[in-house]
Amino acid sequence: MKKTLHTPQTSCVVCAAPSYRRSSVLQPKQQSDRCHLSLVARVVMLLLVLILLPVSARANLSCTTSNVNKTLTAATISVPAAAQAGTTVATLPPESFQLPCFFPNSGTHTTSATLYSDFATTTALAPGFNDVYKTNIAGLGIRYTFNSSGCSAANAIMANGLIRLSCPYAGPLGGSYIYRDVTVTATFVVTAAIAAGASSLITTPKITIGYATSDGGSGYWQQEPLYTGSASGTLVRATCSVNQSNIVVSLPTADTRAFQSGIGAVAAPQAFSLSLSCVSGAKILITLTDAVDPSNRTDRLTVTHDSTTTGIGVQVLNSTGSPVLFGADSANPNNANHWVIGDAPNGTIEIPLTARYIRTGTVSPGQVKVLATFTMSYQ
Fold first, then answer.
1. What φ, ψ does residue 180 adopt, rounded to 5°?
2. SS3 assignment for the chain
3. Which of 66, 278, 279, 347 is most deeply buried (CB count within 10 A of its CB)?
């Protein structure tokens, strides 16, 4: 009698081989080993697939700032008496700063991303402007203009409290910082009537910096401010205008014998005056400057190169008869060698002066020519 061998049923789900059939019946232990070997082979194949898949290098652009946290320094800003709203009265030199970024070492491939740098302020706009912001001086506003070839910014103005610069970067992972240079230029603009005299500039808008990146980075994060909001400077609004811009003073002819007494001898005084139209509200100060030698701080004007005499200079006397010491061409109320004229009237004021020759060396006949300018300041 023919007998058939029945083996216990063995389950091996993950390792069944559907691609072929075997005619013989496996023993239980042999089938279990085959399942184990097939499972190991399949796991190894899966690991190999995972290992051989290409790795995508992705580094989040990391950025900071350099040369920020600035205090705005404006020195002296002069505002003409008749300046109207919209008049630009001063433009400061461009100030530079940098936006350094790098790609952290998280892969082996060169990568790239864009930094979005937002410059913003919460300071109120001056009435009637969308790009001029208030300062602590009523009627004086400020405008900010950005330039950066690396961020494709050309005379970009911060309007309505915000400007965004888009700065592309590309470099190796784990490399050094890549810098984008930026300049900002502050311009002062008359926005309304400004009080006569001198005012101190103390505050200007605080300009904050916020970052985001095209690769997701750290979301949105703040940096140190570009400008802290602190400022220094003096605003001087003229209360007077000049009625005659060019004044020619002709001194009488003097005999060389008038200077025989020696160095410092004077002769041939000639009176003249400066005529101004003013509005009241400030004290007038004036400085005379030697136009031939602006560094001259003596009481004798330097003769021009086309003068033909030698040993002779020219003095200017003020209303008290004292020789004027010459100073810098500056409207700063603290300018050296200025003198006080008095309170500005509502109307015309005449400032009396006198010019005269003074001996400075060995005298020879000829023609003497000097040039001077005057600058008014106010308190």
1. -115, 115
2. CCCCCCCCCCCCCCCCCCCCCCCCCCCHHHHHHHHHHHHHHHHHHHHHHHHHCCCCCCCCCEECCECCCEEEEEEEEEECCCCCCCCEEEECCCEEEEEEEEECCCCCCCEEEEEEEEEECCCCECCCCCCCEECCCCCEEEEEEEEEHHHCEEEEECECCEEEEEEEEEECECCCCEEEEEEEEEEEEECCCCCCEEEECCECCCEEEEEEECCCCCCEEECCCCEEEEEEEEEEECCEEECCCCCCCCCCCCCHHHHCCCCCCEEEEEEEEEEEEECCCCEEEEEEEECCCCCCCCCCECECCCCCCEEEEEEEECCCCCECCCCCCCCCCCCCCCEEEEECCCEEEEEEEEEEEEEEEEEECCCCCECEEEEEEEC
3. 278
CATH topology of domain 62-237: Immunoglobulin-like (2.60.40)
Smallest Cα–Cα separation from 374: which of 285, 314, 308?
A: 285
**What gap in Å lies between CA 369 and CA 375, rounded to an integer?**
21
Rounded Cα gap, residues 123 and 186, in angstroms: 15
CA gap 112, 4 in Å, rounded: 72
CA-based radius of gyration for the chain:
41
CATH topology of domain 240-378: Immunoglobulin-like (2.60.40)
pLDDT (0 to 100) of residue 174: 86
pTM for this entry: 0.62
Given this chain, do its domains 62-237 and 240-378 carry the same CATH topology?
yes
**Encoded tokens for 138:** 């009523």
CA distance readout (Å), 10 to 18, 25, 219, 297, 349: 16, 12, 56, 114, 121
**What pLDDT shows up at residue 111?**
84
Domain positions in the chain: 62-237, 240-378
Binned average pLDDT, 10 residues per bin, the chain of 379 residues: 37 37 39 40 36 41 95 90 90 98 74 94 98 97 98 98 97 92 98 87 98 84 97 88 88 93 95 89 88 95 93 94 92 84 89 95 93 86
